[in-house]
Specification:
Layout lengths: L9 H18 L8 H32 L3 H22 L8 H29 L2 E2 L2 H20 L14 H25 L20 H36 L4 H24 L3 H29 L10 H17 L4 E2 L1 H19 L2
Helix pairs in contact: 1-2, 1-7, 2-3, 2-7, 2-8, 3-7, 3-8, 3-9, 4-8, 4-9, 4-10, 4-11, 5-6, 5-9, 5-10, 6-9, 8-9, 10-11
Protein name: Ionic transporter y4hA
Keywords: Membrane, Transmembrane, Transmembrane helix
Subcellular location: Membrane
Length: 365
């Protein structure tokens, strides 16, 4: 889908189909079972769910184009985060609890975004333009907050004494949720108000582009965005049943569910980031990629933490040794990649190799 031109039919058809599917499935008490009818239902559900996620991102892009950067990227990021929280919370708190799903999904998002997506964007941009530049000041702000949030949510739980790792005690989790929200909130203030020029291609001297989108189309996109997000939230429970059964049938490791959720929520935003890199706008690609990682930790962990605390469920956060090594490697590599303000194909290839190692280790740990 494109944010330019007339609204594509799929942008309103998929949200409508999603609401209809939920109503029919609820009314007829349809569910997923390992049968021909069950797999047909699962295929229909996944197709409509993917289409609705793409529709939600399309409408977020339309709104983003109207309000401009860096607010536009923020709208995209928040829309995707809402979808992510709904899917994670529904699967985690379902009939078959998965206390490590939030950790696995957040870790998968960081690895997919900071290595797979960033690497692909840099590699594609390097092939087409040899070198691309971006704002080092903005990238450094992203990385400083990301490193702190990832460390206190994915590594620190392994080394606490109040509760045996890899979990936080109730007091520790509440404190971490609070400081995570506070730090992410200050980052948003910095990104959108205090130093917004750090996140715009060309900095403070960049020309402001105006959108020809009418107020009527803007209102329609806002309404359809809300409907799309609601539809995804409503279908999350059905999707969780499919994930549970398929994971068990193919004998996939527990982390596979987290990777699957991460791919679902990141695919539309990833397409947007890659398109921006092809158009020589690596700054937008970085904003989308690193912004997704920050929002995933800054909003998802507190939301899931609150849900598990209220429902008295266990939340496993600490990574194993292999995961911590990959995370720290991603930190060091990102510092080198975003330290100069210019990129080339080798930076992109190195990131993609780290991502390939992550995917391989999920299935062959």
């Amino acid at each position: 889908m494109s944010a330019h031109g007339p609204m594509p039919k799929s942008a309103w058809i998929f949200p409508a189909l999603a609401m209809l599917l939920f109503a029919v499935a609820t009314g007829l008490e349809l569910s997923f079972t390992p049968s021909v009818g069950g797999f047909l239902f699962a295929a229909t559900l996944l197709a409509i769910l993917f289409g609705t996620v793409f529709a939600a991102v399309h409408h977020a892009e339309v709104i983003a184009e109207r309000i401009g950067e860096p607010y536009g990227t923020l709208v995209l990021t928040l829309a995707v985060t809402i979808i992510e929280v709904a899917l994670i919370a529904t699967i985690m708190l379902g009939e078959k609890p998965q206390p490590a799903l939030a950790r696995d999904t957040v870790f998968a998002v960081v690895m997919i975004v900071c290595n797979g997506l960033v690497g692909l964007c840099i590699f594609i941009g390097g092939l087409r333009y040899r070198e691309q530049d971006f704002q080092v000041s903005g990238a450094n702000l992203y990385l400083s907050v990301l490193f702190v949030l990832a460390t206190i949510t994915l590594i620190m739980p392994n080394y606490t004494l109040t509760a045996p790792g890899p979990i936080y005690s109730a007091a520790q989790l509440g404190f971490v949720d609070l400081v995570t929200l506070m730090l992410y909130g200050v980052f948003l203030y910095t990104q959108t108000i205090r130093h917004s020029d750090y996140f715009i291609k060309g900095g403070a001297d960049a020309a402001t582009e105006t959108s020809s989108l009418s107020n009527r189309m803007l209102a329609l996109s806002v309404a359809l965005l809300l409907i799309s997000l609601l539809a995804v939230v409503l279908l999350a429970k059905k999707f969780s049943l499919v994930v549970d059964v398929v994971t068990a049938m193919i004998g996939a490791p527990p982390a596979f569910a987290g990777v699957l959720v991460a791919v679902l929520i990141l695919l539309p935003e990833g397409v947007t980031a890659i398109a921006a890199a092809r158009n020589n706008d690596l700054q937008k690609s970085i904003n989308l990629a690193l912004g997704s990682s920050l929002a995933t930790i800054g909003l998802t962990i507190p939301a899931v933490g609150l849900a598990t605390a209220v429902l008295d469920k266990e939340l496993v956060l600490g990574l194993n040794g292999q995961g911590m090594v990959l995370l720290l490697l991603t930190f060091f590599l990102s510092m080198l990649t975003f330290g100069t303000g210019r990129t080339n194909i080798l930076f992109g290839l190195v990131h993609m190799v780290v991502f390939a190692v992550f995917v391989f280790m999920v299935f062959v740990p």
